[in-house]
Amino acid sequence: MNMRESINTQRLQALDSAHHLHPFADYRLKDSQISRVIVKGEGAYIWDSEGNRLLDGMAGLWCMNVGYGRKSIADAVHAQMLQLTYYNSFFQTTHVPAVELAAKLVQISPPQFNHVFFVGSGSEGNDTIVRLVRHYWDKQGSPERQVIISRLNSYHGSTMAGASLGGWPSMHKQGGLPIPGIVHIGQPSYLEGGKGKTPEEFGLEAASWLEHKILEVGADKVAAFIGEPVQGAGGVIVPPSTYWPEIQRICNKYGILLVADEVVCGFGRLGHWFGSEYFGISPDLITFAKGVTSGYVPLGGVLVGDRVANALIEKGGEFNHGYTYSGHPIGCVAALENIRILEEEKIVDRVRTDSGPYLQKKFEALASHPLVGSAETIGFLGGLNLVKHKGATVHEHIPFESALSVGMICRAHMFDSGVIMRAIPGDRLLMSPPLTLTHAEIDEMIKLIGLGLDQTLADLKQRGWV
Ligand code: PMP
């Protein structure tokens, strides 16, 4: 297809700028920040309207686990649209895709999960979590257990409860958040807080903040702790190995529900179906979205563990919560086919035993680049920090001034060299590619990232910043 002939890029960009308010964007800049028009995806690659091919190192938005262009998912969706486009699961009705998907999710999830509540997105999933855990404690005769403890710099969505659980002050400022009963502790970022300690010591210290907070709030008022196994949007922050087991111990000690937000980590990203399994923890509830359908159709949900589900079943009383699109049949068939692909192609196992370790070796070698202070991966997630001068340890590197936005400059050079990474404040570049990458595609991605880094270095030298 000659996309340049069929697509008028300038027209689309003008209409986009005139009428389309993008998520997480500064609308004052919308006329000057022209958007790239993406027109096609195949495997790990996307194409823009100018014909540029880009290796999608972010799997869309952490979601295209099986890659773009899977005909079998499109076929399943097409057939279901003709069979039964929509029906709900309110008022004693159900439909085949929701039933089959619920059963499949129970089969692939850790043993404590036998029930699932469907939603349309990760944000809706976390809103459901807030209502569900408070409902649970109410039914347990402890309605005063309302407080949910989360972490600074975590991301849990953009709805009122999702953004409240998240730990971004920039989001809290808009809309009067957090909503009551949500408090935050520090994140387990060794780069941020681990100076002078081993990662293991720091992991225990970061987990101890949970216990301090529980004691400060009063254990009898705390309902749950929520965390992403690995913080994604906050910067691919890999917690030290001691962190999660200690968090689990503290939750058990005080009888507090443990919630894993697996919207990013679920469905193979860490080489297990769920990131909790990587860290050996047993959450009571899991939020999922994104990878459950590999982004082909919006769908999310909450896996409800036996502790909560059995209590609600036993105690009874309506849970007054649900969405028109809870368990949408089209999303459910996309998820079923997506999971079938993950199983048939042994993608989760490959990430754990083969492509993940290969990616780790290649990606971590980028730390030898003069601009890269540290580079680490876990499964198919990665992050690297750009620094002005390297010191003897990660805590002695000298960063660029934040006003220079070196991370964003680098991201633009990555685009020019043909690979997509995400830049976040602190000049950190993130990677979360499709789980299907072959060794050759990993080699290509690392080569393109290296090229982007070289171009950034040359650019910064020209500006006199290094
Ligand atoms: N939780 C996590 C960990 C996420 O990364 C995201 C989205 N990036 C969400 C929740 C929110 O999901 P959604 O955008 O589908 O509402």
From TrEMBL:
One of its GO terms (molecular function) is transaminase activity. PROSITE patterns: AA_TRANSFER_CLASS_3. The keyword Transferase applies. Its cofactor is pyridoxal 5'-phosphate. Keywords: Aminotransferase, Pyridoxal phosphate, Transferase. Coiled coil: none annotated. InterPro entries: Aminotrans_3, Aminotrans_3_PPA_site, PyrdxlP-dep_Trfase, PyrdxlP-dep_Trfase_major, PyrdxlP-dep_Trfase_small. This is Aspartate aminotransferase family protein. It comes from Undibacterium arcticum.
